[in-house]
Amino acid sequence: MLLRRRKPRIHRVRHLVPAVTALVAAILLPLSPLGTAPAHAAPVRESRPVYSYDDALRESVWVDTKLDGDADGRTDRVAVDIVRPREPARQGRKIPVIMDASPYYSCCGRGNESQTKTYDADGKPVLFPLFYDNYFVPRGYATVLVDLAGTNRSDGCVDIGGRSDIQSAKAVVDWLNGRATGYSAATGGTRVTASWSNGRTGMIGKSYDGTIANGVAATGVKGLKTIVPIGAISSWYDYYFAKGAALFGSGPDGLADAVESDAAHGRCAAVQKRLVDGAPRAGDWTGLWSARDYVPDARKVRASVFAVHGMQDLNVRTKHLGQWWNALADAGVERKIWLSQTGHVDPFDFRRGEWVRTLHRWFDHQLLGIDNGIEREPMADVERAPDQWSTDRVWPPSGTRRTTLRPAPGTTPGVGVLGTERARPGSVAAFTDDPRLSETDWAADIDRPTPAKAGFTTPPLTKDLRLSGSGTVTVTATPSTTSAHLSAVLADLGPDTIRDYGGAGEGIVTLDDRTCWGSSTAGDSACFKVTAADTKTVDSTVFSRGWADLGHWADARKGRPLTPGKPYTLTLDLAATDHVIPAGHRLGLIIAGTDAGLLEPPTTTPRLTLDLSRTSARLPLVGALRADGAAPEAAREPLRRGIRTPHLDAPLPHR
What is the pLDDT of residue 320? Predict the structure, then answer.
């Protein structure tokens, strides 16, 4: 599936309300001793740190979600910790909000250093994880951190991307706009209003947090002006399954158990049971998954979207990005994107300086209405090699076309070729599922006949070949047993130095030095450990993959037992990518069974026979792949070194 590049419906700010105009003037222009902007002052294109962070207001509010997730007879309240500059409120000016709604503020922490919220003896917030408060509060923004229902100091229950999770954050956006009720305490207390807020809210967050931003935007809530989802989920079914094939050894109940508070453990048993019952491990689509699929509601999105994703993220895979990006494009949503070569990593840890500058300009434009030109700059930044970036005016780039490549037998038995010609009828390739082997094992042996995979390669390329977007692989396979899982991967066959996305840091290494981004207090430092690219020299790179259960051949949402000896045709969705295969390298397509460490094996050990005349790959190529007749016999090469796949038996959607 080719990713789409529809012209966005850009929400331009024509007239800001007087309070916002006054605030912008105050934080953009240098002040004279009397506090007025000099007549000769040139316009400044960014907000400046003119407010005291040390003297900022720090407070907690509990917002009523109007839901009773734990069925205790009281509507649930979620805890909202706020830090905002004191000066605008004194002067009667209202300010915008940067919000991060998360289940991780007490259980797991945020950021590379796993920071959690801290409070003083009176329960007043002290440490706000990450740099958003340190950097943006002095520049005239409020930072709002929301504990999802059932986590940290919030009431209710975690429901893994469902109504309770989304309403936890949406209710806060409503409260910031005067449409919901806040209180000074978790129970009882006095009513609290957000009289200091102008209602303009930007949501940001990595992983689960960014997923909540996607979900809230998909409600179309008024006041949410932009979201910045980083490595975020767009459909929870696709987090746990790939067309019926289980990707992890546990379901959403396991994640809920990991993130919910101790108090929630005792009151949320019924919600846990619904998560178990609604997410059968057979991989069929249920109503639970429909309620956690944000893609169909992209048409409701009012906010702009600045998406960030690691192209080698094997936790929240880029399938989530691809289908969300397409849906947003169809809806005409204003979009920007960064694609890195990392795994599940925050841009603060792979491109720190440029990230802070870009995020600053993005929020200034989206929330303060500053005409800094960011919306007219290239839409996409793509990492081509460790710390080397390119840009594209639109993404995928102009000239990207779907191109069909086809596998065929080669001159060496068990070693196939990949080109534009259809294989002759009757051409086959066979393999036996071996759950011990992964995609890197297959790529290392692509030029050798091995029993666990079918591999096909192009000749060495005469010029660079770029793949940009999402592809598909359609196979016709005959199983020997009643169940079978399939994997399809694309590999760049040639030496390279890449980020070690399979390492502990998923492409980064954390150093001891620190850099500071904003202002600090005794309890909340703006200084964070420096990171650097963690690189590895390899002989092959798997850059896109897709999985499926063959039993879902007729219906992606419902599986059925297979009849041994009967052929089935199924299409696997490849995760979105943007990869350049250099001239001299080869493109490889591998079709196999269980991808060890990423895909759960089927209940049997099948042997699968591929009908090559009815097997093909539809890939998003920039330009055309020129084929000079049949591909030549591949030269025998030594074992290729690749990235070892990280095993994700018990995942959490964060690094």
Answer: 98
Radius of gyration (Cα) for the chain, nearest Å?
26
Pairing relationship of beta strands 465-469 and 485-499 according to DSSP bridges = unpaired
Which of 320, 344, 365, 579 is an active site residue? Answer: 344
Instruction: State how far the alpha carbon of 570 is from the alpha carbons of 17, 295, 472, 490, 546, in Å.
Output: 54, 23, 10, 17, 12
Record the pTM: 0.92
- Given a contact cutoff of 8 angstroms between Cβ atoms, the answer to whether 313 and 282 are in contact is no
Catalytic residue from among 207, 234, 470, 616 = 207
Active site residue 207: yes
pLDDT in tens, 354-389: 999 999 999 999 999 999 999 999 999 999 999 999
In the residue annotation, 344 being an active-site residue is answered as: yes
The pLDDT tens digits of the residues spanning 129-142 come to: 999 999 999 999 99
| Residue 446: strand, helix, or coil | coil
Is 313 annotated in the active site?
A: yes
Average pLDDT in the 590-605 region?
96
d(CA 194, CA 183): 11
Angle subtended at Cα 480 by Cα 479 and Cα 486, rounded to the nearest 5 degrees: 35
Q: State the average pLDDT over residues 551-567.
A: 96
Which among 575, 406, 401 has a CA at the least distance from the CA of 475?
A: 406
Confidence of residue 280 (pLDDT cuts 50, 70, 90): very high
Handedness of CA 190, 195, 199, 205 (dihedral sign): negative
- From the candidates 70, 313, 445, 595, give the one annotated as an active-site residue: 313
Tokens of residue 263, six digits: 């108090």
Cβ atoms of residues 336 and 379 within 8 Å: yes
The interaxial angle of helices 252-259 and 269-278, nearest 10 deg, is 160
Tell me the pLDDT band of 314, cut-offs 50, 70 and 90.
Answer: very high
- Average pLDDT over every residue of 156-165: 97
* Residue 260 near residue 108 (C-beta atoms within 8 A): no
Residue 92 to residue 570: CA distance in whole angstroms:
62
Q: Do residues 630 and 419 make contact, with C-beta atoms less than 8 angstroms apart?
A: yes
